[in-house]
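Page 37, continued from 36.
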């Protein structure tokens, strides 16, 4: 049996294989962020498709942290009833689910009603579009992450993941490209990482020692004055010290051009898969907690090699599962042909459609 299909564990969480559905914005929740039947159906398909652990689309922990329309929310106890339906659906269909806890930071869409906040004042053509968070804002938001994690526990989620990648709030604080602060949250790497570590500590306070807490972080930002690979290695060591149970490595922001998180046109050859192999090599020499690696995986043998070589403990997939939610089941049953995803990124264009996220390139 391939090592990819071995059962494993993260903290108390027993996972049936080494495949993870990386968090993907589905745009299938209600306008208030509550879970809808459409989203439940989408999740059922993923669970039936054989993924060991599904990470939900980014769920905003406060209203000013919303990143997009019909994004799932976890900012209020009013969300719990729908979230329970989601976890029940996943469990009944044979998989596990982690709630990704997120805040869009300066990318928030709240406008005047819920003004966006970030590490520093952000201007576009001399117009303030996001304000620097005060110390009170930071403390309030860290608490909101903790409260959201508690809702995840009450709702039956199996783990939580703190989203600190892709240029959202916690990623913005880590990156000197966005973070121009001169206080204890800016300047040195230790200061820029302070907010993320406070969030992780607050989440742990709310969920207890045995509940799995994951973090998603960039390998690099791939933008001018962005966070570097060397800095990421150091932050991951800090995360291990703060009792994080596993780290997912991604990379880039939506300002990173061809090195954005979902790189366009990378499906043609296997040597263009496994985007963050070099970072994985460095991390495996530095941290001792499991690594989940996302980025470019389309071929079974590339995923298998990444795990067999010890560079990845789990393989995370996003776009391939949008096109083929049953991909892992297909591979498990012996059909090891490459995923049919062509990395065209046309799926992003479906997020504004009534049906939400789907593969726009797939022909019926």
């Amino acid at each position: 049996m391939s090592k990819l299909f071995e059962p494993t564990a993260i903290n108390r969480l027993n996972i049936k294989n080494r495949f993870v559905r990386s968090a993907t914005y589905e745009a299938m929740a209600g306008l208030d962020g509550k879970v809808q039947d459409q989203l439940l159906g989408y999740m059922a398909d993923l669970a039936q498709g054989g993924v060991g652990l599904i990470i939900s689309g980014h769920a905003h922990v406060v209203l000013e942290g919303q990143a997009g329309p019909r994004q799932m929310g976890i900012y209020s106890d009013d969300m719990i009833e729908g979230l329970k339906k989601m976890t029940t659906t996943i469990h009944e269909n044979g998989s596990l689910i982690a709630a990704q806890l997120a805040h869009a930071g300066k990318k928030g869409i709240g406008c005047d009603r819920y003004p966006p906040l970030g590490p520093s004042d952000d201007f576009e053509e001399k117009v303030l579009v996001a304000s620097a968070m005060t110390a009170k804002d930071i403390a309030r938001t860290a608490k909101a992450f903790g409260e959201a994690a508690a809702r995840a526990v009450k709702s039956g989620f199996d783990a939580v993941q703190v989203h600190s990648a892709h240029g959202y709030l916690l990623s913005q604080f880590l990156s000197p490209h966005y973070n121009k602060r001169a206080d204890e949250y800016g300047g040195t790497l230790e200061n820029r990482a302070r907010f993320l570590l406070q969030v992780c500590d607050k989440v742990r306070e709310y969920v207890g020692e045995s509940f799995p807490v994951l973090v998603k972080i960039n390998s690099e930002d791939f933008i001018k004055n962005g966070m570097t690979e060397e800095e990421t290695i150091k932050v991951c060591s800090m995360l291990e010290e703060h009792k994080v149970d596993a780290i997912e490595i991604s990379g880039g922001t939506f300002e990173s051009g061809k090195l954005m998180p979902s790189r366009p046109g990378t499906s043609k050859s296997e040597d263009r898969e496994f985007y963050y192999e070099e970072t994985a090599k460095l991390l495996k020499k530095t941290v001792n907690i499991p690594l989940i690696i996302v980025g470019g995986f389309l071929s079974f043998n590339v995923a298998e090699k990444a795990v067999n070589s010890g560079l990845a403990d789990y393989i995370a997939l996003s776009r391939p599962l949008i096109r083929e939610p049953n991909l892992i089941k297909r591979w498990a049953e012996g059909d090891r042909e490459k995923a049919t995803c062509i990395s065209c990124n046309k799926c992003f264009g479906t997020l504004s459609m009534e049906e939400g996220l789907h593969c726009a390139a797939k022909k019926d």
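The first helix runs from residue 37 to 48. Flag for discussion at group meeting. The chain has one domain: 3-350.
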